[in-house]
């Protein structure tokens, strides 16, 4: 179990330079795709949000959007806004968790604890909204489980007041500290051709300068109503990966603050007609904090016939094994942390 | 003499208690945590309870022959750490021994105390990671002892003596830190290595080995090795005070002992800030570069400057 990640790394070395690296994974295998076969579609969500606990809302969202497309259910606008707010909150929480991992790999104690403090604030908000910090079980096919209280909106407004300053503090810790910048610069560079061959997505791809964000490209939910930029990097080194994520936190705050004043009144769920005679597969994808999270679903008689999850971390893990070649042995931990790999999503 | 030694030990244990508490509580507040809160007022009794818990595990001390070398190593660590502390004068009047070569002897004892961990190699050799970590630890101590010794030669040249009393007396007008800042920085950085903490050394979790060789120690052994580590910290900090900050010299509003304590405390806070702010030095090669290429060079440069000052501008001192 190197560096707290439950994966094995088979490393070939020449002196202390990495020649080849093969990841050895599967220690967190749950077989969730098989378990949920035959389960009613509404009862699947508590199983599926454990695929990626750092951003469980995104997984629930991917599943529900797939089924809504499948059954052609129109989701109420209020529910869409609330889904966007919560998924952006979970994106911030996941990116801050990434920064704590990075700070730990860098051996910096103070930013680590500062980041954990900010993350705690976000998790508390998610708890107020959904009742659970990590596995909310909140998104439903056709809407959301329950409406949000005024208490949540008040707390969110209060949080947003000071949070930009805190993010600036985090930016100073990581991007304006010369020691950290020198350490991360030109470390673990991923070549663009390799990245495209391995089909990586998310911040790791955007760090290479490729502006591909499903929130912009596919406009799922109501992301077209918000003004936000897609931060991109330049060289695709560890510093770019860190910078892209910190800027994404800022953009997420901007999305939340726009959404907060636009949330309309109204219903929160549509109970659509479940057509039991459909047999074809349907693919749907969302932009989860780690990258593109896709779901391929087929339903028979109101139950899941087959579900396959295409997580981003699996591809990112192999991208890591490419990026680490030619680097020193002592840098492996830092490069692994800079890719933000969610091992439970790799193993599923 | 025995009574004096007992006083010294009492002072040492009080200092230990305060410094361990400071490491837990002050560090926690720097990292925006609360630190210990449960046992006693703001966790003040937590260290006491931890010590008690370790002492109650004493029957594990001599369990097998394999442990014997380990136990001897731990005892060597503690003995030499205490010996080094006993050699250090706290004020002009409060001292246990006044030896001509007290500075090199004291530094050597601290080094030997750090080497004591090497005797646990027999226990560690079963685990490759722990073995590698231990070797890394020992070699870094050896490497960083070189700039530590060289940098401490600056104050020695100024006072023309290895005696700590003479070194402090020579600073009655100007403190060494004023014209030997390079030497002070080198000394402080080397101290932070011997402190076994970030940014220069992390024996518990290095960048690529999970080098928790200390996890082989249990119960009383662990307590003793940790305590000897902390005693070394106190000794090094007081040495830093005596060498660069003028020791007990200061305005006569306060007792000289209080001046020593205040200056030691300031050094400790500086090291704590280094610990929290600076990221870890990457790998063994970088450490070697830092020690042999940068710190040694700086300390030699400092020596040259000091020799020039002493030869040509002696009237300043």
Q: Can you give a write-up of this model?
A:
The complex is a heterodimer of chains A (348) and B (317). Chain A is 49% helix and 13% strand. Chain A has one domain: Cytochrome-c3 Hydrogenase, chain B (Orthogonal Bundle), CATH 1.10.645. The longest helix of chain A has 30 residues, at 77-106. In chain A, the strands form three sheets. A three-stranded antiparallel beta sheet of chain A has the order 5-6-7. Chain A has helices at residues 32-35, 45-48, 56-71, 77-106, 109-130, 150-175, 178-184, 192-197, 203-206, 214-217, 238-260, 312-323, 332-338, 343-347; strands at 8-14, 17-24, 139-140, 143-144, 282-288, 291-300, 303-310. With 317 residues, chain B is an all-alpha fold. Helices cover 67% and strands 0% of the residues of chain B. Chain B is built from twelve helices and no strands. Mean pLDDT of chain B is 81; it is low at 206-211. The chains are: A alpha+beta (348), B mainly alpha (317). Chains A and B meet through α5, α7 and α13 of A and α11 and α12 of B.
The average pLDDT score of chain B comes to 81
The total of beta strands of chain B comes to: 0
What pair of chains forms the biggest interface?
Answer: A-B, 23 and 21 residues
Q: What is the topology, as strand order, of the major beta sheet of chain A? A: 5-6-7
Protein traits:
heterodimer; A: 348 residues; alpha+beta; 3-stranded antiparallel sheet; two-stranded antiparallel sheet; 14 helices; 7 strands; 49% helix; B: 317 residues; mainly alpha; 12 helices; 67% helix; 0% strand; globular
In brief:
Chain A is 49% helix and 13% strand. By secondary structure, chain A is an alpha+beta fold.
What's the arrangement of secondary structure elements?
The complex is a heterodimer of chains A (348) and B (317).
Chain A: E1 8-14, E2 17-24, H1 32-35, H2 45-48, H3 56-71, H4 77-106, H5 109-130, E3 139-140, E4 143-144, H6 150-175, H7 178-184, H8 192-197, H9 203-206, H10 214-217, H11 238-260, E5 282-288, E6 291-300, E7 303-310, H12 312-323, H13 332-338, H14 343-347
Antiparallel strand pairs in A: 1-2, 3-4, 5-6, 6-7
Helix pairs in contact in A: 3-4, 4-5, 4-11, 4-13, 5-6, 6-11
Chain B: H1 2-30, H2 46-55, H3 65-86, H4 102-115, H5 121-124, H6 128-159, H7 164-169, H8 176-179, H9 181-194, H10 219-244, H11 256-277, H12 283-312
Helix pairs in contact in B: 1-10, 2-10, 3-4, 3-10, 4-6, 4-10, 6-9, 6-12, 9-10, 9-12, 10-11
